[in-house]
Amino acid sequence: MTETEVATRHDPAAPPRRLRVLSGMQPTGRMHLGNYLGALRNWVGLQDHYDCVFFVADYHSLTIALDPGSIRPAIQDMVLDWLAAGIDPERSTVYLQSLLPEVTELHLLLSMATPLGWLERVPSYKEKAEQFPENINYGLLGYPVLQAADILLPRADRVPVGEDQAPHIELTREIARRFNSRFGQVFPEPQGLFTEMPRVMGTDGLTKMSKSRGNTIGMLDSPEQIRRTVMTMVTDVERPRRSDPGHPEHCNVCGLHRFFSPDRFEEIWQGEREARTGCVEVKRGLAEAIARYFAPMRERRAELESNPDTVWEVLAAGAERARGWARETLAMAREACGLPPAGRHR
Ligand code: TRP
């Protein structure tokens, strides 16, 4: 990770600056193993090497119809898990997108540099339009422009996301380029940070773990709940009888052991291959390993839960900190477009 740690210095005498990383998640409530292994764990580690910005994309969540009453609890639950997992608001800037409404002004300015055709071709737009034909709204089409504003407002250098977000990062770069060439050099072009991340399958063993499919294992569920969920997991379908040899490389439970039982998984895999162990045993072991792995975070979450205001204080303080660079970037963008200064200097 060293290559990307320090930004290029225009002034050789200036102290080295850490590269700025930004990423966000829609408020989906409590985190599951897919969220943790696919993103959150990586975020926590990035804090050692980058100037990190993590935010809750609540405006984005409004692009599809959901119960307004569910948003705040989902934000609180998600951020409690972030903090419990080790996202550190002292080191990183952690905020709620809608507490930084400057992002909406940048979204508007960027929209002037975004051809409609680009947006109509975005895969996530086409998917959502197909999924919810009764609610193809303007915000949905503009989703990637708002995401570009999220990224360009803090002038982020790197954006750690899964492969599914690659088209959004590419579009952000194109919007930045188009804005710069039309109005003048304002935005650096960010790069995606596509770390090798396991694709975590759901308890059905067939599809990616996701809340909408109801196939998740909650990362900070109680050990009892974890055991109950893990015991329902679909295992090796090519092993009809206990006495048949297993295929751990095709078994989702064995796959998760690889991560949660790092120094035992080879032995577990071998036991399966030789039919020395059965699926029930291997599942029981996995449930224990998962519960053990998350025990310290579960404790930390319980402490944090005793004062839920903490989440909202963290999110507001982060937005306040972000406002500094938000105003700077907006001032540059307004100037480039020929608008007068906003006159809200503090
Ligand atoms: N679209 C992202 C997702 O669904 C969330 C998101 C919004 C985001 N703005 C962002 C991610 C900016 C990275 C950077 O996962």
Describe what this molecule looks like in 3D.
By secondary structure, this protein is mainly alpha-helical. The protein has 13 helices and five strands. It has helices at residues 33-46, 58-61, 71-85, 102-111, 116-120, 123-131, 138-152, 166-183, 223-231, 252-260, 265-273, 279-305, 309-337, and strands spanning 20-25, 51-56, 93-96, 158-160, 191-193. A three-stranded parallel sheet has the order 1-2-3. A two-stranded parallel sheet has the order 4-5. Strand 4 (158-160), helix 8 and strand 5 form a beta-alpha-beta unit. It is elongated. The two termini are 37 Å apart. Mean pLDDT is 93; it is low at 1-5. The chain binds tryptophan.
Query: What is the CA-CA span between the terminal residues?
Result: 37 Å
| Total of DSSP H or I helical runs spanning 4+ residues | 13
What is the approximate shape? Answer: elongated
Radius of gyration: 22 Å
Bound molecules: tryptophan
Unreliable spans are 1-5
Helix content: 40-55%
Strand order of the biggest β-sheet: 1-2-3
Strand content: 5-15%
For the residues shown, what is the average pLDDT?
Answer: 93
The H-and-E topology, N to C, reads as EHEHHEHHHHEHEHHHHH
Main sheet overview: 3 strands, parallel
What is the β-strand count? 5
What class do helices, strands and sheet pairing give?
A: mainly alpha
